[in-house]
Design goal:
single chain, about 220 residues
Amino acid sequence: MNIQDRIINTVPVFEVSENLKGVITFFEETTYSHVGVTENGTYLGLLSENDLPCFEPEKKIDDFRFEMEDFFVTKDTSWLDLLEMFSRNEANILPVIDEDRTIVGYYDLEDVVDVFIDTPFFREPGAILVVSTGIKDYSFSEIAQIVEGNNARLLGAFITQSENDIVQITLKVGTQSVNEVTQTFRRYNYTIVYGNSDDQFLEDLKQRSDYLEKYLNV
């Protein structure tokens, strides 16, 4: 997938010397959480929609220089790292800067999530399985061997939790019947956290992800 195709140029960038009138209008007319600020064309930081009550139209953006947040991505940032950056900063927009620290555009959270949902992990029919084990006791090659050794396809796997030396790994298995797969994982000393169908798992994701519900209502 070419995530760079999702960079948008329809969101403005403000110069630190401007007053806040345009910024206020931007936040009032959009649902974006942040907007980029430059100084002489060079990326300086981000103003947050959370500070909107403090903004006065005739004040300068420079008056809020030290309240700006400082996060960004580049064209080389992977889509998984983009999702992490969105989540870590509670943002629904990310500035993309080049080697000269010029803002070349933005990533919109909804666009990036659409790319994720369009992957075989979500689109291919199959079952979701979540297993846990010690952080030093697993390998993705072993996980793939367990799944494929039961004549099933592994459509995707990623770590969804890591705490107290225990990791949880979410798998998408290309079969609706995962009984043999789960039994094999147990024989390899994995704990089965749960294994649900696509629809059940996606519904669980919706209910437990306050962040995505806030910005995407999914």
